[in-house]
Structures are given as structure tokens and as C-alpha cells.
Design goal:
heterodimer; A: 289 residues; alpha/beta; Rossmann fold; 8 strands; 13% strand; B: 79 residues; 3 helices; 52% helix
């Protein structure tokens, strides 16, 4: 099956990046969200991201408008009746996702593949909420999506070989590599990363090291491109908290209990880069996202 | 604040190390891909100019000096 039109559900940070990457690969996109304001902001920020990409890609200097034109934005799930493949990027809360998949079951045509861009919720659980679990797969994209070369692809026991093959081919059309892993809460990436970030927060909370020094240790000693706390700011501290909560519930293991400092920061609106401050400060005017 | 002062403030606020006005911020690897993504929106919004077509050239954005000369020239066009 050649995928020509892809539905992208959820126009937050991840949904925008996925829509942009698809459009840049020449694929038509239907971007769906519940709020017109979010869709307008998504279109504006993708436009800026494409212009910025044009700085490094002369073909985009004249072509960024055409890429943006491949993205249709709508609040109507009915528009997903015209797509072969859906990538769902809604918030990491089960009641939200469950309702989204119920809507998708009503709106999508039979045979449409549903890919969950989740960082923590098990694919089997999502698949069980759909009419045909063999069509459900996980595609865990990293932020910023257009720049990241690898996608963690997750097969549940029910995912069919055909579904996996189409998903992998789509990832390759985006110029990325798919690494296929098994279905376990948090998969490989977040099961390990969230625990690391939570422990880094504990170290800062206890005054063992400053955020700056802690991150510099990871960069300087282990050659990581960025430390765990800058990574947390990039992902968004609200997402970190939600992911830890999902892991805590899924494994029933207190080692995933979110640190009080993380909860406090999220409650006070310090969400990382997107809010202008987290463990580090960011010039909010540079966001454009 | 003058154009170059505002640009200097923005760039130095986004990179952890001191940056000379003429340093190529991309070549030195001083900035990550996210900074690159945000630069055009910063310039358009901060200085109320539109950047498009051939102006979307890394040569116009690669240093504090280059960016300030570009912005000054663009603003001159509009007057």
C-alpha cells in the first residue's frame, strides 16, 4: 500500500512536527485538532519552521509555501475518511486517547492504519479500543521531528506484518530509520529516559548538584549532546510528569514516582522551553512555536 | 535598544558561551537545531519585517553582524 494522504491528529508540538515532516516528504496531510486557535497557531509555526529550514535548504526558499499548502487543517474528524494512515499525537492521558480512538473508529475508512505517537501508553491497550487491533502500531517520534533521524516503532502482539511494513516504509519516506521494539510501557526510550530525568531532578532537589553542573557532567563525561534536564525542558515538564505517572501506573512500581520538585514546577507553569523557563531559562520571544 | 544590541542580546541569551559579533554561530556549532528553527520567527516578529525567497539565506543569519546588517537593510527597504 502506498500512503498518499496521512491524517495527523493533535496539533501540539509533536503533531506539528509530524505534519511538517510528512509535507516536506511530499505527502498530503490532514491535520486535525479540537480547537481552531490551536490549528491557526500550528499553521503559523510550521510556516516559520519551514522558512527556517530554507536557510539550510535552498530548494525550500521558493518552495516552503507549497509544502505548507500540503497541510489541510480542520476540526472535523470526518475529513479523516479520506486518509490511508493516521498518526495520533494527543495528550498522554488515557481518557483523552480512548475518546480519540473512538472518534477515529467512526471517522476512518476500513483498513486505515492507526499509528499512536505515544511515549508511554502501551500499544496493546490502544489497539483494544479499536475495531481492528491488527491495524494499530506505535510510532514514537522525537522532537523536533523534522530533524530527528530515528523513529521508535512499536509492534503490539496484535499488529499485523502488513501494518508494520507500511509504517516502516512511511518512516523511510520521511528520510528516517525505524527501529522496531516490543510493546512495553515506555518502550525503550522513555522507560529509561524518564527514570533518568526523575533521578536527575532528585539530585537537584537534594542540593547535590546544580542543574547546570549536572547537565555539564553528562555532556562532558559521557559525550551526550545535551544533559537530562535540558532534555526534560525540551520535551516539556508536563509531558515528563504525565509519562512518569503512566509508567508508575503501568508497572505498579514506586521507582517511577514523580519527584515533588517536578510536580511543583508543572503546577507553577514552568514547563521548560515552551513556557520560557524550566530547569533553564529561554528567551520566550524566540519560540515562534 | 539598537538593532545590533537586540540581536546580540537574543543570540547571547540563546547560547551558553560568549559570542563575538563576527563569529559564525552555525559553523562553530554553538547553536542547536532548535535555535535555527526559531531564528526566522524572532527576526520577523521582533523587527516587523518579512523574510522570504532569496533572503532565506544562511549568509544573512550566520552571525550577529550579518543579521544586524540584513535587518537594517530590510527595514530601509520599507521606508
Amino acid at each position: 500500500m502506498i500512503v498518499n494522504r496521512v491524517g495527523v491528529v493533535g496539533a501540539g508540538l509533536m503533531g506539528r512536527g509530524v505534519a511538517q515532516a510528512l509535507a516536506q516528504a511530499g505527502i498530503e496531510v490532514v491535520l486535525v485538532d479540537v480547537a481552531t486557535a490551536i490549528l491557526d497557531e500550528a499553521r503559523r509555526s510550521i510556516g516559520y519552521a519551514l522558512k527556517s529550514a530554507a536557510l539550510f535548504d535552498p530548494q525550500l526558499r521558493a518552495g516552503h509555501g507549497a509544502v505548507l499548502a500540503r497541510i489541510e487543517t480542520t476540526t472535523d474528524y470526518g475529513a479523516l475518511g479520506q486518509v490511508d494512515f493516521v498518526i495520533e499525537n494527543t495528550t498522554e492521558e488515557w481518557p483523552v486517547k480512548e475518546e480519540v480512538y473512538r472518534q477515529l473508529a467512526r471517522s476512518c475508512r476500513p483498513g486505515c492504519i492507526l499509528a499512536a505517537n505515544t511515549s508511554a501508553i502501551s500499544i496493546a491497550r490502544i489497539a483494544a479500543a479499536t475495531p481492528d487491533p491488527s491495524l494499530v502500531i506505535g510510532m514514537h517520534f522525537m522532537n523536533p521531528v523534522p530533524q530527528k533521524p530515528v523513529v521508535e516503532v512499536i509492534r503490539s502482539p496484535a499488529t499485523s506484518d502488513a501494518t508494520a511494513a507500511v509504517a516502516q516504509a512511511l518512516v523511510e519516506r520521511l528520510g528516517k530509520r525505524a527501529i522496531v521494539v516490543g510493546d512495553s510501557p515506555g518502550f525503550v526510550t522513555n522507560r529509561i529516559l524518564m527514570l533518568t530525568i526523575n533521578e536527575a531532578i532528585a539530585v537537584v532537589e537534594e542540593g547535590v548538584a546544580s542543574a547546570r553542573d549536572l547537565d555539564d557532567i553528562f555532556v562532558g563525561c559521557f559525550s551526550h549532546a545535551m544533559g537530562p534536564l535540558a532534555t526534560a525542558d525540551l520535551i516539556g515538564l508536563d509531558t515528563i510528569l504525565r509519562s512518569l505517572n503512566v509508567l508508575r501506573e503501568s508497572f505498579d512500581d514506586p521507582k517511577f514516582d514523580a519527584r515533588p520538585l517536578l510536580r511543583q514546577m508543572v503546577e507553577s507553569g514552568r514547563l521548560g522551553r515552551k513556557s520560557g523557563s524550566g530547569f533553564f531559562d529561554y528567551d520566550i520571544r524566540n519560540s515562534g512555536r | 535598544m539598537t538593532v545590533i544590541e537586540r540581536i546580540r542580546q537574543y543570540v547571547t541569551g540563546s547560547v551558553a558561551v560568549p559570542v563575538e559579533d563576527d563569529s559564525d554561530i552555525f559553523e562553530l556549532g554553538l547553536v542547536d537545531s532548535l535555535f535555527g528553527l526559531q531564528l526566522v520567527s524572532f527576526v520577523e516578529q521582533e523587527f516587523a519585517i518579512s523574510v522570504d525567497g532569496d533572503d532565506l539565506d544562511i549568509a544573512n543569519f550566520c552571525s550577529i553582524t550579518a543579521l544586524s546588517e540584513f535587518v537594517t537593510a530590510k527595514r530601509g527597504e520599507g521606508k
